[in-house]
Amino acid sequence: MKRILLVRTDRVGDVVFITPMIREIRKAFPDAFIATLTQPHTKNLLINNPNLNETLTDDLDKKSFWKVVRELRRHKFTHGLLMMPTERAAFQMFWAGINTRIGVGHKLYEVITGMKSVSRNNYTPLRHEADYCMDLARKIGVETSDLTLQIYLTEHEKSEAQIILSQYGIGNEDFKIFIHTGSLGSAPNWSEDKYLQLIRTVLETFPDKKTKLILTSREMSKELLSNIHNLSSNRICNLSEKLIDLRDLIKVIGQADIFLSPSTGPLHIADALEIKCIGLHCHRPMSCQVHQGIINKYSINLEVTAENCMKLCSADQNTCGIEKGISVEEVIDSIIKLKKQY
């Protein structure tokens, strides 16, 4: 029996991107033992996943290296798939005695540990990150093109989220537009001033009392929060301090009618929950919609055009022109389009 370990110890969105391969590996090998190794907080993304037997964690502390090795060895894995080159995980899988280990690229530590490899071919042609992850599953015999992301919520969790919203006067009959303004530096993003402009415009464009704005980013500055407070609107709800951990954020996002965010973890969570999303994307390859875009069919990806990228971004692409490259009007038009489908 195959005993397969999937390793993704980086960021939230990256862990969401391995959910299709979990499902497709289960389809290909229904009797296999399938486990993941992630950081403790990103394990929250995989709770209730029916295709997993185990969710293991690594806090990435030097002191816990051998503890993780012993845990992996105890499970007697036959296959280990490492979706992103990580020296720590490569050696952990090696010392855990996993016979078939597959990684990405040809890092020195991968060569030293005898790891097999798949190539991203310098991202040519460019594909979605979830598809690159699936390449490792294909390496062990999985045949699929289904990249649908999946996060599973129980009915109890959905009820808990509804209770949280009801405490702020938001009911099931309200139309809930979520705006997540932060990215923790993982993706190009608008300024807070522009998000404030968007919030004002949404309130003006959709004056119906049943249209509510829910803010979820803990990165919001005191200045932005003060400016939002000065709008004196009882249709704006700030949940950023209410969401204690990642699972709380996931549960609440599941209540959204529309979710707006830069191309970062919360956007991919909403995508996996099949929420109608509006994603803000840079044009450069690693941040564009082809590589990091929303996959579900209900959503809209907004991307800086090639022309604006040439005009607004720095030559070395270290400075992104997303601030001027995507307008508030484009976002409002997208909300109108998605709201018509409600």
Order of helices and strands: EHHEEHEHEHEHHEHEHEHEHEHEHHH
Largest sheet: 6 strands, parallel
Number of strands: 12
Number of domains: 2
Radius of gyration: 21 Å
By CATH, the architecture of the largest domain is named 3-Layer(aba) Sandwich
The CATH topology of the largest domain is Rossmann fold
Q: What would the average pLDDT be, to the nearest integer? A: 96
Find the CATH superfamily of the largest domain.
Glycogen Phosphorylase B
Low-pLDDT residue intervals, each spanning 5 or more residues? none
Distance between the first and last residues' Cα = 46 Å
- Provide a count of the helices: 15
Q: Name the CATH class of the largest domain.
A: Alpha Beta
- Strands ordered across the widest β-sheet: 3-2-1-4-5-6
Shape: globular
What is the topological layout?
Blueprint lengths: L2 E5 L4 H5 L2 H10 L4 E6 L15 E4 L7 H11 L3 E4 L4 H9 L4 E5 L3 H5 L3 E3 L10 H11 L15 H12 L8 E5 L12 H14 L5 E5 L6 H8 L6 E3 L7 H8 L4 E5 L2 H8 L3 E6 L7 H4 L7 E4 L2 H7 L9 H4 L2 H13 L2
Parallel strand pairs: 1-2, 1-4, 2-3, 4-5, 5-6, 7-8, 7-10, 8-9, 10-11, 11-12
Q: What is the structure about, briefly put?
A:
This protein has 342 residues and is of the alpha/beta class.
Q: Could you please describe the fold and organization of this structure?
A:
The protein is α/β, with parallel strands linked by helices and 342 residues long. The protein folds into 2 domains: 3-139, Glycogen Phosphorylase B (Rossmann fold); 155-340, Rossmann fold. The protein contains 15 helices and 12 strands. The strands form 2 sheets. It has a 6-stranded parallel beta sheet, sandwiched between helices. A 6-stranded parallel beta sheet has the order 9-8-7-10-11-12, with helices on both faces. Helix 12 (289-292) links the parallel strand 11 (276-281) and strand 12 (300-303). Helix 2 packs parallel to helix 6 (129-139) and helix 3 packs across helix 4. The protein is globular, with a radius of gyration of 21 Å. The N and C termini lie far apart (46 Å). The model has no long low-confidence stretch (mean pLDDT 96).
